[in-house]
Specification:
With 465 residues, the protein is of the alpha/beta class. The protein folds into 2 domains: 192 residues, no CATH class; 169 residues, 3-Layer(aba) Sandwich (Rossmann fold). 59% of the residues lie in helices and 7% in strands. It has 17 helices and 6 strands. It has a 6-stranded parallel sheet. Helix 14 links the parallel strand 2 and strand 3. The longest helix is centred in the N-terminal third of the chain and has 31 residues. It is elongated. InterPro entries: DHS-like_NAD/FAD-binding_dom (IPR029035), NADH_DH_b (IPR012136), PNTB-like (IPR034300). It catalyses: NAD(+) + NADPH + H(+)(in) = NADH + NADP(+) + H(+)(out).
């Protein structure tokens, strides 16, 4: 069998593994196996590519593999689940810039050929890789900075910012067209890449921190599209297929998240989030004299007579690494005949599925996890809701204040329950930067403290009751 046939067969097997892997990622019970299948597919694709006859020396390839492997192992061990959105943003960015450099290298090799005949499929793909890859790289690192706190989480707006984005975008398109017409001028490619990097900054910087999960999902799609375009540049089938899978799944996820947050995909694409939103100012009197603090002993008394309990996990629970302690509380309550479920907001923890993964890690039965649409109508029949570290996803301002940064975002209607207990370190605002009227509601009690420690104290109090 010819080498080309073996390569194509290997790429076909890898692509099938990618597809099956993504399918199995759709359910927690098969997600681990799906992840392994995807990794196996990538391993096969990489090994097959190393047998390509175009490779003249393996020296730098080996160096790159070793460096990348070490970095990957360190990240896998060190990165906490709470920092996973930031890691995804960084990986998206690296994928984008890789497409820019690979397409640029392909252009250098093709310039001598273009003096005689231009391959327009190739040059269009090269230009497309530069634009999408550049936007993905800079936009992803802006998203990383906002999530990590290096850059302000607020939507950065200034007079004429939309016009600036349009002008920079048109400049990128104009340079792209010129690059296709004059493919032998390599400098145009790198100027185009620089303008695309600038465009990525202008597109993401006006977006508020509360909307970063949607942005990361969209940029993930961009990285796949850039990779697919690079596949056309290199005539690499597995890169085209895998990039298309990432691009399509990212767009679908973005659309689902937009629906969950009542956002417009058009606004995401053009960096229009927060266009009319204004941050709500807290003059110091919002909570003054209105907060009802409680203790673990008082919460234990409430739980002791409850028949139904809903636990709402949030980013604060993830930061405290309290998922296993929450599981212990769940098991204790269940053993007493109390019906316990978990209410999962689509973007709780900043990333879709973040809370599902944490709770699955703690061996909480998947059938106990209820999505927002399923559980919202049942809160009025719930005796006690325990909000552990969640803020924006339970904030009534989303429904009552059209000028709030989270205006229109569907929330968990925990305020409809008979009693709400909010576990929180302090009254500091959530990621959106606005106060939460839930905390001063008549049926709300605040249990101040670390999510893990407060839950442990509740468990101890329950066992003594």
């Amino acid at each position: 069998m010819e080498l080309v046939s073996i390569l194509n067969l290997s790429y076909l097997v890898a692509s099938i593994l990618f597809i099956v892997g993504i399918k199995q990622l759709a359910h927690p019970k098969t997600a681990s196996r799906g992840n392994l299948l995807g990794a196996l597919g990538m391993f096969i694709a990489v090994v097959a590519t190393l047998f390509d006859q175009a490779i003249l020396t393996y020296d730098w390839i080996i160096v790159g593999v070793l460096i990348g492997s070490v970095i990957g192992i360190i990240l896998a061990i060190k990165i906490q689940m709470t920092a996973m959105p930031q890691l995804v943003a960084v990986l998206n960015g690296f994928g984008g810039i890789a497409s820019v450099f690979v397409a640029g290298a392909a252009l250098q090799l093709s310039i001598p050929k273009y003096a005689f005949a231009v391959n327009y499929q190739e040059i269009v793909s090269i230009v497309f890789s530069a634009i999408v890859g550049g936007i993905t790289f800079s936009g992803s690192f802006i998203a990383f900075g906002k999530l990590q706190g290096f850059i302000t989480e607020k939507a950065v707006r200034y007079p004429g910012d939309q016009l600036v984005k349009i002008l920079v975008g048109l400049t990128a398109v104009g340079l792209g067209v010129y690059g296709c017409l004059e493919p032998t001028d390599e400098s145009i490619y790198w100027i185009l890449s620089g303008v695309s990097l600038l465009l990525g900054i202008f597109l993401v910087i006006p977006i508020g921190g509360a909307d970063m999960p949607v942005v990361i999902s969209l940029l993930n799609s961009y990285s796949g599209i850039a990779a697919s375009a690079t596949g056309f540049v290199l005539n690499n089938n597995v890169l085209i297929i895998s990039g298309s899978l990432v691009g399509a799944s990212g767009i679908i996820l973005t659309q689902i998240m937009c629906k969950a947050m009542n956002r417009s995909l058009t606004n995401v694409l053009f960096g229009g989030f927060g266009a009319v939103a204004t941050e709500m100012k807290d003059d110091g009197d919002f909570y003054s004299g209105k907060i009802k603090s409680t203790s673990a002993d008082e919460v234990a008394m409430l739980l002791d007579v409850a028949r139904s309990v809903v636990i709402v996990p949030g980013y604060g629970m993830a930061v405290a690494q309290a998922q296993h302690t929450v599981r212990d509380l769940y098991q204790l309550l269940t053993a007493r005949g109390i019906d316990v479920t978990f209410a999962i907001h689509p973007v709780a923890g900043r990333m879709p599925g973040h809370m599902n993964v944490l709770l699955a890690e703690a061996d909480i039965p998947y059938d106990r996890l209820k999505e927002m649409d399923e559980i919202n109508s049942t809160f009025e029949n719930v005796d006690v809701v325990i909000v552990n570290g969640a803020n924006d996803v339970t904030n009534p301002l989303a429904k009552t204040d059209p000028k709030s940064p989270i205006a229109g975002m569907p929330i968990l209607d925990v305020g409809n329950a008979k009693t709400v207990v909010v576990i929180k370190r302090s009254l500091s605002p959530g990621f959106a930067g606005v106060p939460n009227p839930l905390f001063i509601a008549d049926n709300c009690l605040m249990l101040f403290g670390d999510g893990k420690k407060a839950t442990q104290e509740m468990i101890a109090a329950l066992k003594e009751s």
